[in-house]
Each structure stands twice: as C-alpha cells, then as structure tokens.
Amino acid sequence: xxxxxxxxxxxxxxxxxxxxxxxxGLFADKHGSKGALNVLRNALDSGITFYDTANIYxxxxxxxxxxxxxxxxxxxxxxxxxxxxxxxxxxxxVQRIKPLVRPIVQAIGLKRTKLPSGISGTLSQDFSPxxxxxxxxxxLKRLQTDYIDLxxxxxxxxxxxxxxxxGEALETLEKLKGQGKLRFYxxxxxxxxDAPFCLSAPGISSIQLGFGVLDLEALDQxxxxxxxxxxxxxxxxxxxxxxxxxxxxxxxxxKEATPKWERILALRSLSKSTGRPLLDIAFQFCRGTPAVSVxxxxxxxxxxxxxxLRYFHACPLNAEEYMALRHLQA
Length: 330
Known about the structure:
The protein has helices at about 30-45, 60-70, 90-110, 115-120, 130-145, 160, 165-180, 215-220, 225-230, 250-255, 260-275, 280-285, 300-315, 320-325, and strands spanning about 5, 10-15, 15-20, 50, 80-85, 85, 125, 150-155, 180-190, 205-210, 235, 295-300. It has about 325 residues and is an alpha/beta fold. It has an eight-stranded parallel β-barrel, surrounded by five helices. A two-stranded antiparallel ribbon has the order 1-2. A two-stranded antiparallel sheet has the order 6-7.
C-alpha cells in the first residue's frame, strides 16, 4: 500500500480508504457480521488504514463493526466518522428489531431501493452543540475508542454553512478536540456547490467531496486546488459514480439515470480501446489527481476488497492518459 500526507495534520493515510456505508444493516449478505468483520480485518492486513463511516450508517452498526474489528489494533487505523443527522423513529425501531427482521429481508430478497418510505422514514439534520456532543459520545462507544482521528460534519448544505450555526458547530468540535475526544475535524460535503463555503472555515483539517472521472466539478471549479492550497486533507468519494460506471446499464437506462450518460458512453469506448477496465481507469484517475489524499472505495464482501486491491496494483495513468480523461468529450 502507498500512503499520502493528509493535509497538515501530520497523519499519513493509505491511498485507498475503506468506505463503510454498506457494512451491516438489514441488507447485509448472508454471512452478516462475521463476513463484515473478515472484510475489515483483511483490508487492514492488506495495508488499508483509513476507515470512513458515520453514526447513521446501518443505524450505527457500521461503527460497531469497525470498533469490534479493530479491538486491540486501534493504533494501526485512522478512524473517520461523521455526525449531524438524526435518525427517524422508524429506523430506531428497526435498530432494535434488526436481528429478527434481517433473515426475513434476505429470504424475500428485498432491496434497499425498494424499501417503502414509510418504513425508512426521512432523515433530518441537527448540528447543534448538544446534538453533536451526544452524537460524538455515542460514536466513541460504538467504535470502542477514547478518541476519533477525524470527525466530520455530515453533509451540511450551503444555507447552514453561511449561518451562525456553522460557527457554533465548529466551536463545539474545537471544544471536543480540546477534551481529547477527537484529533481533527472537517466537513463531508453533499454536493459540489457546498464545498466552497467550507474552505475558509477556521479549525477544519479536511474536506470530503464527490469527485471522480465522471464528476469533475471539484476540479473544474478550482475547489481541489483551493483546498490543497490551504493544506486540507482531501477525501474523494464516489470514485465509481455510485455504480453508474459498472457494466449492465444500456444507453437508454443511463440516459434515464443521469444527465452525464453521454460521458459514460465515451468512457466505455475509451476503456475498450485501451483494454483497461473502466473501474480501473476511474480509480487511477482519482489517485493520479495530486490534491486527493485518499480515495474511498465501498467494500461489503471479500470480492469487493479483492477487486479494489487489483485496481490499486494496476499500472497508474501516465500524464498523457490522465489529461485525455480530464478533457474527454462526450
């Protein structure tokens, strides 16, 4: 594994980060917790040291699995989690009855995307000092640690980032940092338009944003360059564009799914002409962008880990190949 400096924090992070949003929960595979723990431990054995999760992922189970997986190995990993969302009442109920419901979900083959909104409920946000403090304390318990390496505000939108509430939230995180409960804090942005409002915020050490060969806004708009100039650690999310770069969708389905469908078709053509898998190209593009500190890749089962490591060990893009992707016309 190769490592990068994480902004001005003094931490070194693996080029691949483990994205923990899909481990645990009702839709875990038949191996359940055991399978997730194996993937986490094997990822660390493979050199992946950066683990990104959130208190709401799988109603907290993602954090719990990470805490269990690295019990006794805490100093070998960098734990990044997030806070700022409130789970609806329905999900709190699901959390309590999950062991009973999960076998039923697996038996009938229910998919996450097909879950009725009345069951899943609607998330709300709360970045108040009291909620953030409580959320952090709960994350510490689930992660089985005394401190979190990187605590991130979870998807605050532009109106909040321009309000006094943002300053109060940062003051709260600074206070918690002073108490030794977190080492550094940052912002995990939801959309490219929100990111610029974070760059001048006092105290933050990182920014997480959607970026990849399909989503170039952070590069085109100068956000990556500005964040790097300030010395922030940059976490790239969505390298594989939420599954849109995978095979299986034809042109009509892509057109319905995203306005960027023509670029995906152009990327597929480039992939065929070069003989390199598109997901390999996508990862190499992120790792080849100098400002990016760590690229998050989702890993739920062993096959995902093996595939991601195969992309890591593939040949990086040269400067000409990188620029061809950068300026590829649909």
